[in-house]
Fold this sequence. Notes:
The protein is built from four helices and no strands. It is mainly alpha-helical.
Amino acid sequence: xxxxxxxxxxxxxxxxxxxxxxxxxxxxxxxxxxxxxxxxxxxxxxxxxxxxxxxxxxxxxxxxxxxxxxxxxxxxxxx
Length: 79
């Protein structure tokens, strides 16, 4: 039997990165306006906030997947 506390995910680039951390870094880099252009969801376009975005993304898997993809693109984008 494996111990879940020792289960590592060495091949998962998002392991240990919270959704809030992703959003904060994306907003810092792109800003809400650009994020709303890249991922057309209302919580990025109309009165955006970290709290409202987290609430929406936690219940909407397709939108969360797009945010995760944008985050990975940002992190692994080599200029």
